[in-house]
Amino acid sequence: MNASPPIQPTEAQPFYLEVHTLGVTRVLLNGHEPQWHAQGAREVFFYLLSHPAGRTRDQVVREVWNVEPGTLINTRFRVTVFRIRQALQAQDSVLEEQGVYRLNDLIVQGSDVQRFRSGLNAARRHTDPALQLQVLQDTLEHYQGLYLCELSSEWVLAMRADLQGKQARALLHLARLLCERLDCKDSIAARQQALHADPYLGEHHHQDLMRCLTQKYSKFDAIEHYRRFVLLLRTEVQDTPMPETQQLAEDIKQNHTLAHPCTPKLLDLERSCVLRQWCGQRDLDEALFET
């Protein structure tokens, strides 16, 4: 894929585009909503934004409009591309190369969803835990809510689930990094946020959270989380927690010792939390940052 050319506005004015897709769905061109002239043009714009490498005409037609390519629908597609370019007041806002249509890189890179993706890639490249922690925290700031929350097409739901999973896994990794720094409060908060985003990440993560809640706060907080998890499984998948999770809940209720308190004096030479035998080790897989 060739590099995108600089955007040349069709009108004699600056080109400043803001694209918000996480939590709020909004496009602003020089501070104003573009005139799309048709909802279909706006949706195709967001579809191409979701696929930075580009899509063919037939892929757009099938996945966005759920119809098979044909003479009439192909004409509709050409009109839609024209309307996107017209709305953004730039001919090179949508590029076509060998039958593949994509948004100009400058548009993609300026969107919150691409900043989120790029931030995850940057975090994966860092080997210094402190730098990785900072990059992850900055990256997660871009995730302000569900992707394209006002749309419900199948392609939107698939992309939304993918991004939500990435957010949850990034939060779990953030929780581990915070745990390593003995920042138990923020570590617990990150783990809670991750499991709220995706309760089915893995039951062992719920076990980890129960242990941390017991150590940092109280057994009552841990059991409250356990009961919510039991209710979730019962109502959504008609299932019950694993025997290990149930036993952990009973141990917490009976005040059985789970581990020593998290204090610097009890840390090993690598400054690892004494609960690390449970919390965090399984979060190290690079799949957490797959983009």
TrEMBL record:
Cited InterPro entries: AfsR-DnrI-RedD_regulator, BTAD, TPR-like_helical_dom_sf, WH-like_DNA-bd_sf
Q: What is this protein called?
A: Bacterial transcriptional activator domain-containing protein
Domain Bacterial transcriptional activator, first and last residues per copy? 111-253
**In which domain of life is the source organism classified?**
Bacteria
Any single Pfam family the record assigns to this protein: BTAD
